[in-house]
Amino acid sequence: MIRRKTFNDARVLKKWQVIIDATELDEGYQKKNDYYLSRCYNRWKADEFIKYHRSVLEAKLYLGNNLVCSIASEPIENTEYIDQSGEKIKQDCESKAFIRLAKKMKQSFPRLPIIITADGLYVSQKVIQTCTDNGWDYIIRYKEGCAPTIALEYQALPEKEKIGSEIEYQNQIIFQNTDVNLIYYTEKKVQTDGKEKITEFAWITNITITKSNAKKIVKAGRNRWKIENQGFNRQKHWQGNIEHACSWDEQAQKNHYLMEQIADFIKQLYEYYYLRKNKKNCKKMYLLNC
Asked: Model-level pTM?
């Protein structure tokens, strides 16, 4: 597949799109091992209770045709609770796990040209700096509540670049101590009841936005949903069971998750090429019969 450049059409501006997101794998009232995180419900109330859960941060390579392949996984977990000074350590989270995941990806693929795609949680100086240090581009979903200063500066600009009525953008918006480029996209869809639904999206990126690449950036930004639909949703409800607590042992749980990733991609390749091949054969038989 590498020799035939099978997936090259999936690249964005000649770079490979890697989608980052986290998902919860297990939650319950029992703490199955010390690596589980805790979550308090109804805090400070009479019916306060705690549930324990484990999650994973995933990096999936988008290969087009709804194919997504896991290239790195990082558990979001507690490893220690007290440091050497006796201070309690805060629970692990997505942003901390991203730093570890990025290091793992850079070690495994040091020369791979990458575009990181993620949701609004990753609008942070730490994430942007990590991408910059690794030589990666990024396209991150932007919501005004994530970093309001970006929207304020954008709105203060007297003129913006536009492409029709759907796309509006501006380069070099100041965000803390760096510049980002901001692009808005208005999606219009006619629903089954005949009414038009309008949805607005926005992304920040370090890629200089132009009239020739704006639509490609928007399309890449919308691809973020592939990790939800063709990734986690498939592995939870259709072609796998990554939420199943196969063991209370922490290492066994990780092994199960990684085996699911390998098996799922093999199944994806088989389904895609098998169906495509049979579709061609059916078409040939139809033409011969005619």
From this structure: 0.88
